[in-house]
Write a structure and sequence with these properties.
It comes from Necator americanus (Human hookworm). Keywords: ATP-binding, Magnesium, Membrane, Metal-binding, Nucleotide-binding, Phosphoprotein, Translocase, Transmembrane, Transmembrane helix. The protein is an alpha+beta fold. It has seven domains: 66 residues, no CATH class; 62 residues, no CATH class; 110 residues, Calcium-transporting ATPase, cytoplasmic transduction domain A (Distorted Sandwich), CATH 2.70.150; 39 residues; 243 residues, Calcium-transporting ATPase, transmembrane domain (Up-down Bundle); 170 residues, Rossmann fold; 182 residues, 3-Layer(aba) Sandwich (Calcium-transporting ATPase, cytoplasmic domain N), CATH 3.40.1110.10. 40% of the residues lie in helices and 20% in strands. The strands form seven sheets. It has a ten-stranded mixed beta sheet with strand order 19-39-38-37-20-32-36-35-33-34, with helices on both faces. A nine-stranded antiparallel beta sheet has the order 22-21-31-30-29-28-27-26-25, sandwiched between helices. The longest helix is centred in the last third of the chain and has 43 residues.
């Protein structure tokens, strides 16, 4: 890090590897500015140092010698509300306007930024040389194409900016409390942290992040999470002030910017208030917008290889540049001619159309994906998809159906005096008369939920909704039927919500249950509870009903109420893919006042278990086939879910992520137990294998491991499964095993959003190319972190993912991978074709420069327009192969095979041209070329030039056919009909020009008449032999020897290398390959002793 500057400007340079970040900070003293203290209060300062980086203001705290993000102090400390106008002005000066503004860059700026790219600058240089050489036609075509390309790119960029701005920009008038408690209407852009915001009772769009101070608010957070289910936010209770405030921990109390408020509830005549926490780009919506505006860097390995190879071509052109100057000077050419010819050799060796030609495959793949309702907002990611070797899937909504279906429930028979509680048989109906304890399990299910009515329609969590509808009970919210109340006033009433059982036998019942208090569901607690009062009973006791994960509810229950076979029953259902909910109760002796204030922890204990509810989550019809297709292609599949571990493992088995021919182990931690180093103890248990009949007859299992011994596949012989809590412990306490764990663990359950992102990053660190497929709910961080994020939700909820499928299942994954492979192979093929074309033409020009000659403008025009441009454009039109190959295509442009291919073809083409050049010179009818002297008019026609031109045009056709690869990554050459028709056309046209060209055509192209028909026929024969040799060289030496035998030998050497950083750097290859070769056989590497249980 370096610093410098003086006066009112300060310059800081941050260095990380090859990346440099230059920051310019400025002193501000236009008015007395306020900055935050450590406790969140504000203090006035005369001047501050600050800078803006990616839309966020960073302030330098002089005494602390650290940078403070304006977002930081608002995520952890309370901010005192502003009362007077001067404080508001000061905070506006510190935090800026509350606006997520996407400024449209002026069109001239966009045009200039596009035109100064290296690609277009080199094109300007090339066309300048061509115009000076009077090669005007093709130069004009290049200029027109470049201008059109720039205009299209600018219009596309402007369209994206407009769409993003239209999506994020919004402002409205809001009510705030300022100036001693008076209500003021201000623009939402004038909000500052600390303002007291009044939330309208019938909904609004939130323009900031705020903490709820009173009442309850029902919001729709689909803009941020993709989950359209209404979420109830509750006020931050007083005891929460004693802890450090955290957005993640207290998200139930935070209203996020961009979410839609559906309804608020509080006392009649009272307004719901919230404290403004964050504004502008610091908000949750602002962070999402910044992630779109400043995406993570793309994998630049391919681009770096491209520039290195272009540099190699540049070195060749440098040699040709020196050779040209020497030859031209010795031949006595004029200075202008020497300069033009020397510069022309650079434009020949490094083709200006190379970048545009290489984008053809990506553009065609993007169009084909669009036809299949898969939309890509980052085309450069398509090539990366060709290298994907692991896909992470969310479970619910991605592998399985969105909704849950009620399966069965199991009640609890109360124990006798000396007995033990037992489960009832399975019940498929929620009828109280069929269950023990007077059917209190049904009563608990009917009352323990967070459902509410919005505009008369019942809304809430889908699970709660399904279970409540299954009971057939009726919900009535107090005041809903009275003219002097509306829904927004239903807060903290004596009977805010009343639940009634269904009418039985046509007779109404006076039984009813009032929900006095709700303890909302918390992902960290994994449960929710309600306090219920039954007015029809004479006593004043209340009941607490609790439901949640079986493990958590079990820990809260009295052991005497839990059957001995509790966990075996739970595991049995979980292993068959059912989602389980445990329900419990407790009798409370409380009055209404105490019930409203009692702490949650004081009542959620010593519960009595009522039973279990099993919900069925079916996998989608296409899931099994897609997973098997990926497994057959040796693409690893991983499940990352927030669901129960055993349920996740069952679904993983059912859909094929856990293969029936492999053992599965569960990694768990032992709370309270530590090892000799003070770390939490970790155990590994073998899981019970599910039945194999699901996949036994699946043909993809056959030949799955056929090529493993050939070095083509490195894989594990077992599966590991882990929960989020254990994964967190390993990440913090056992970081040395994290790399190995992610290589063999295929099921990650109970994972938080940040843990999903950490998993993706860990997979990337060991060398995997990762795709993440999710439905947009809680997957945004992982979708953004992966090499290729694939969202199955609406585009609005997944604007950060490069790919969005309108078909909400995972059939899009193999499609994207196959199109990525086709695009990658196409890019490599076009690059080698363009490089081969340039080097072939370089040899032609070098031969002709020896006699001070060059190809005519007509010959150049025919090569550039009809051969190169036409064929390059249609080259990428070949569609992807319908089946995924068992091994990915080469991903390195500077591989030995690619370099040998280009150099070998150069030797074949160059040798053929040299042979033709010498043979033509020795013919009896040969007329030597008369080179111009001084400023004489140049006649570019020559017999050697014509003969070499005739052979070279067939060489260009040969190169495009040789490098147009077909299966297993692209369809056959014949499937690309326009391409085949073009090849046939230019071949026949070239043959016609060589054998039977009329005089006017020869004169137009600048060809000389080669009088011997036999010699012209010999040139055709030489071109055919050249084509055969080139094809055999590519097929036998490059594909079978270098890419087949040598690649396998190299992989064997890599995986056998000792596991060390030194040898890792020396041998190259992916780190995960060496890890799997070391630990893929047995899981005993994880622990000295393996604990097994069935």
């Amino acid at each position: 890090m370096g610093e410098g500057g003086g006066g009112r400007r300060h310059h800081m340079t941050l260095e990380s590897g090859e990346q440099l970040l230059h920051l310019y900070a400025y002193k501000s003293c236009s008015l007395r500015t306020v900055v935050p203290r450590e406790d969140g209060s504000m203090r006035e300062v005369d001047e501050i140092r600050w800078f803006v980086y990616r839309k966020l203001n960073y302030i330098w705290i002089e005494k602390e010698y650290k940078l403070l993000d304006n977002d930081d102090e608002r995520d952890g400390q309370w901010v005192a509300p502003g009362d007077i106008l001067s404080q508001v002005s000061q905070r506006l000066a510190t935090y800026g306007l509350n606006s997520i503004e996407i400024n449209l860059r002026p069109l001239p700026v966009l045009l200039f930024m596009e035109a100064i790219s290296p690609f277009y600058i080199f094109q300007i240089f090339s066309v300048t040389v061509w115009y000076n050489d009077e090669y005007c036609y093709y130069a004009s075509v290049i200029v027109i194409m470049s201008v059109c390309s720039i205009i299209m790119d600018v219009l596309q960029t402007r369209g994206q900016e407009k769409r993003l701005r239209a999506m994020v920009h919004s402002s409205n008038e809001v009510e705030v409390i300022r100036n001693g408690g008076s209500v003021v209407r201000v623009s939402s852009e004038q909000l500052v942290p600390g303002d007291i915001l009044l939330i309208p009772p019938h909904g609004c769009l939130l323009h900031c992040d705020a903490v709820l101070m009173n009442g309850t608010v029902i919001v729709n957070e689909s803009m941020l999470t993709g989950e359209s289910v209404p979420v109830t936010k509750v006020a931050l209770v007083e005891d929460a002030h004693e802890t450090h405030f955290s957005i993640e921990k207290h998200s139930k109390h935070v209203l996020f910017c961009g979410t839609q408020v559906l309804q608020t509830r509080y006392y009649r005549g009272q307004k719901v208030k919230a404290v403004v926490l964050r504004t502008g780009f610091s908000t949750m919506k602002g962070q999402l917008v910044r992630s779109i505006m400043y995406p993570k860097p793309v994998d630049f390995r391919f681009t770096k290889d491209l520039f290195k190879f272009v540099g190699f071509l540049g070195c060749i052109s440098g040699c040709g540049f020196v050779y040209t100057i020497i030859i031209m000077v010795l031949r006595g050419n004029s200075l202008r001619r020497v300069i033009v010819r020397a510069l022309d050799i650079i434009t020949i060796t490094v083709p200006p159309a190379l970048p545009a030609a290489m984008s053809v495959g990506i553009i065609n793949a993007q169009l084909r994906l669009k036809k299949k309702e898969i939309y890509c907002i980052s085309p450069s990611t398509i090539n990366t998809c060709g290298a994907i070797n692991v896909v992470c899937f969310d479970k619910t909504g991605t592998l399985t159906e969105d909704g849950l279906d009620f399966h069965v429930l199991r009640g609890i028979i109360e124990p006798s005096i000396s007995g033990q509680a037992t489960f009832t048989t399975e019940c498929t109906r929620m009828v109280r008369d069929e269950l023990p304890q007077k059917g209190e399990l049904v009563t608990a299910i009917a009352t323990c939920h967070s459902l509410t009515r919005i505009n008369g329609v019942l809304h809430g969590d889908p699970l709660d909704l399904i279970l409540f509808q299954q009971t057939g009970w009726i919900i009535e919210e107090a005041g809903a039927g009275e003219s002097d109340h509306d829904e927004t006033e239903m807060f903290d009433m004596i009977q805010p919500t009343i639940i009634k059982p269904p009418h039985t036998g046509g007779r109404a019942t006076d039984e009813e249950y009032s929900i006095i208090r709700q303890f909302t569901f918390s992902s960290s607690l994994q449960r929710m509870s309600v306090i219920v009062f039954n007015p029809s009973k004479d006593n004043h006791t209340m009941s607490l009903y609790c439901k949640g994960s079986p493990e958590i509810v079990h820990s809260l229950c009295d052991p005497s109420s839990v059957p001995k076979n509790y966990f075996p029953v739970v595991n049995e259902y979980a292993q068959h893919g059912f989602r389980l909910i445990a329900v419990a109760r407790r009798t409370l002796n409380l009055n209404f006042n105490k019930a409203a204030k009692v702490p949650r922890a004081a009542v959620e204990c010593d519960l009595e278990l009522l039973g279990l509810v099993a919900m069925e989550n079916r996998i989608k019809p296409v899931t099994l086939g897609v997973i098997n297709q990926l497994n057959k292609a040796h693409i690893r599949t991983v499940m990352v879910t927030g669901d129960n571990l055993l349920t996740a493992m069952s679904v993983a088995r059912e859909c094929g992520i856990i293969r029936p021919n492999k053992r599965a182990f569960i990694v768990e931690h032992c709370p309270g137990e530590v090892d000799s180093r003070g770390r939490t103890k970790i155990v590994v248990k073998q899981s019970v294998s599910s039945s194999d009949d699901i996949l036994d007859n699946d043909p993809v299992l056959q030949k799955l491991d056929v090529n493993a011994e050939l070095g083509e596949l490195i894989q594990s012989s077992y599966h590991l499964a882990i929960s989020g809590s254990t994964f967190a412990i390993i990440s913090h306490e056992y970081p040395e095993v994290l790399d190995s764990l992610v290589c063999v663990c295929d099921v990650f359950a109970r994972m938080a959003p940040d843990q999903k992102r950490l998993l993706v990053n860990s997979l990337q660190e060991v060398g995997y190319t990762v795709a993440m497929c999710g439905d947009g709910a809680n997957d945004c961080a992982a979708l953004k972190a992966a090499h290729a994020g694939i969202s199955l939700s609406d585009a609005e909820a997944s604007i950060a993912a490069p790919f969005t499928s309108k078909v909400a299942d995972i059939r899009c994954v193999p499609t994207i991978i196959s199109e990525g492979r086709a695009a990658l192979v196409t890019s490599f093929g076009i690059f080698k074709y363009m490089a081969g074309y340039s080097l072939t033409q370089f040899v032609t020009v070098m031969l002709l420069y020896y006699i001070s000659n060059i190809l005519t403008d007509g010959q150049f025009m025919y090569i550039d327009m009809f051969l190169i441009t036409l064929l390059a454009v249609l080259f990428g039109n070949t569609s992807a192969y319908e089946k995924l190959c068992s091994h990915p295509p080469p991903t390195r442009l500077l591989s030995v095979a690619n370099i040998c291919s280009v150099i070998g073809q150069l030797a074949i083409m160059g040798g053929t041209q040299l042979l033709v050049f010498l043979m033509t010179t020795s013919q009896p009818w040969f007329v030597p070329y008369n080179a111009p002297r001084g400023s004489d008019t140049e006649d570019k026609r020559s017999m050697q030039g014509t003969a070499v031109f005739y052979v070279s045009i067939f060489q260009y056709i040969t190169l495009v056919v040789v490098y147009s690869k077909g299966p297993p990554y692209r369809n056959t050459l014949y499937s690309n009909r326009p391409f085949c028709a073009s090849i046939a056309f230019v071949t026949l046209m070239s043959l016609f020009i060589l054998m039977w060209a009329p005089p006017w055509l020869r004169d137009f192209m600048g060809n000389m008449d080669l009088p011997s028909v036999e010699y012209r026929s010999l040139l055709v024969l030489i071109a055919c032999i050249n084509a055969i040799v080139s094809f055999l060289y590519e097929k036998i030496f490059i594909e079978h020897f270098l890419l087949g035998y040598m690649e396998r030998q190299t992989k064997r050497r890599r995986v056998k290398a000792e596991y060390s950083d030194e040898l890792y750097a020396k041998n190259g290859g992916a780190l995960y390959e060496r890890i799997l070769s070391r630990i893929g056989g047995e899981p005993s590497w994880f622990l000295p002793r393996l604990s097994c249980s069935s």
